[in-house]
Write the structure tokens for this entry.
Amino acid sequence: MKETDTLKQLVLEALKDGVKLYCEKEAPNVSFADLRIRIEYSREESFGDYSTSFALENSKLLGKKPLDSAALLVGYLQAKTDLFEKVDFTPPGFVNFRISPSFLIRFLENTVQKKDLFPKLENPKKVNLEFVSANPTGPLNIVSARAAATGEAFANLLKAVGHSVDKEFYVNDYGNQVFLLGVSTMVRIREALGESSSIQENAEDGRSIEELLSQNVIPAEGYRGDYLNIIAKQLLENSNTEKEIKSHLEKKEYSALAEKCSRWTVESNLVWQKKDLDLFGVGFDRFFSETTLHESGKVLGVLENLKKSGKVFEEEGKQIFKSEDYGDDKNRVVVRDDGRPTYLLADIAYHNDKISRGYEKIIDIWGPDHHGYIARLAGAVQALGYPKENFQVIIAQQVNLLMAGQKMKMSKRAGEFQTMEDLLGYLGKHAKDVARYFFTMRSLDSPLDFDLDLAKDESDKNPVFYLQYAHARVCSIFREVGTNSDAKALENLEMTEERKRLLFWISRFPEEVLDAAATLEPHRIANYLQNLARAFTQFYISKNNRLKDSDESTRLGLARICQAVRVVLAEGLALLGVSAPERLEKED
């Protein structure tokens, strides 16, 4: 199946043919290339399946009133009887298209029944998709869960249309924040061994890090979550690490122990995060360690590449990247005056590594506090010679957990935050399906209110259960009457309004996948599936569509439609990472 083989594209091609005829007879002096020609879904189903505002958008160029142009254009399009059941126009100048049921049936047979549902792009790319990449300083939180669900859906969509996709998780296991994590764990270990401890309330109280270590104090910028108590206990239960810990403490080698605790804690948290991701049904092709970049010399090494671009200058002993040239609000230091690289240079080195691995498209999903970081990194990528349009950053906006209509608080450093594990545990046996759907049913770049009460509801008020009930209902029909169907019987089937509507929504699936993959908007699939399920419900409640009460020819034709519904629902849910069960407690 080619990219052009979607209903929307076929309608667009028919419109272009009609416009050419229109121009030849009505506007011979107008250049076809100058015209704006586009197709949209009709805002109201009563008007048709698709519409175009061609007459409105080109009225000045055509030199005609929109209604006059629309009326003339309709005349040139009505001849497309193999594609359109009806073409008409409505004020102030919209041309509306209703697809012929016979064409929908042929389209259905060539796509759904052959399971050729996903349009394949002519020039697929090798894509690196980085998402989640949560700091290994604690369990995955709710925003990370949202990024995980949506990132996995991105990958499914991109693969569906033919791209090669590698999913990557960047592990920030280097730097001061990781050392502070180790210090925080060491304090919990010493607490478990009977020492007293405290928390530094003010980072400006004058004590050095050495003093804080000797006094068993968690620095103000340290970590306080209860999960560190669990890790401390696990480390002490391991005889080898217990010996190392006690040896360092006896010698008062606090810095050395803190460094080791950093490594151990990062390893523990990464195991924890991988376990949560596995429970969530999200997998990665690679976990990339920041430490390996520093150890290999690639961080300082990429500075030479930047210098060759002429976008780095020295000032007061610092190496500074000209990020203002790329829309940043100021130029950014990449190497400090003491020779230490900044976080930005490490990130540039990481993306240079991606480029060196031959990726034609690099997509990152970042957290809600990274908006200001985009321009400087995107600029550095361009300075390295990578095309601007091939690097894309998408921000995963904040998630608000709602219970009884009230927002729940989150604070990672204080340990008062809801984790992915908390959420999955609360939602129970259907947690994966419900959470994956709820996180993908809204655009990633908008804040999400996650209604825990609705998510917990196992009735069809819950949107994911509504879709699963629809799939299970089709399966129950086939358990009752069998799975036989017939294409010829479908062709001979009388086309009632609810049957035509359902055929149209089934046939829209390939273009919805293509559009969702192009825009990286899996919520479009979620919205589409809801519309398909509603169309099926209207079909199902009609007495005319009761398969068990129909004659054989009608039953075989109706079964053909139901088979297509089942396939599309299952494939659509799979793109979102949601299962399509054949049985549920509520099927009717």
